[in-house]
What we know:
Radius of gyration: 14 Å
Order of helices and strands: EHEHEHEHEE
Largest sheet: 6 strands, mixed
Structural class: alpha/beta
CATH architecture: 3-Layer(aba) Sandwich
Strand content: 15-25%
Distance between the termini: 23 Å
Strand order of the largest sheet: 3-2-4-1-5-6
Amino acid sequence: MHVYFLRHAEAESARGNDSLRMLTAKGLEQSNKAGAFLARYGLVPDVVISSPLVRARQTAKIVVKSVGSPGMIEAAWLSCGMSLETCLEELGAYAQMGSVMLVGHEPDFSNAISGLLGLPESDALRVRKASLTGIDLPILQAGGGCLQFFVPARLM
């Protein structure tokens, strides 16, 4: 399986309910750039799974439209606070697919990516807003992944 991690794009600053924060104009631009990048290189996931938080859903919807993916699934397990164990367990339901895109949050993604790559600490990795990480994951276990690419939004 190939797993794409797309951190949500830039959102409004926190004022009130964190789950309702929307993308800024820059965030919309970042999401469009990510979608165009994926389409340009033929990186079309079989399924896009997004955190239910507004900023992640908005990012995912833009990307799905750009790449012509069949659609998006919202998953509560991608909300803030996801563990590596949860990520692996939930990805198991999609093991028959060639590629899965997860759209979510920090520090969850740096923890999950670090764990999949077998890095001792997630501090070695910082996943910036709207960055895209591609990992080949031939076996669903910690340390079972191989980094294919890590692209920040500014380079898309």
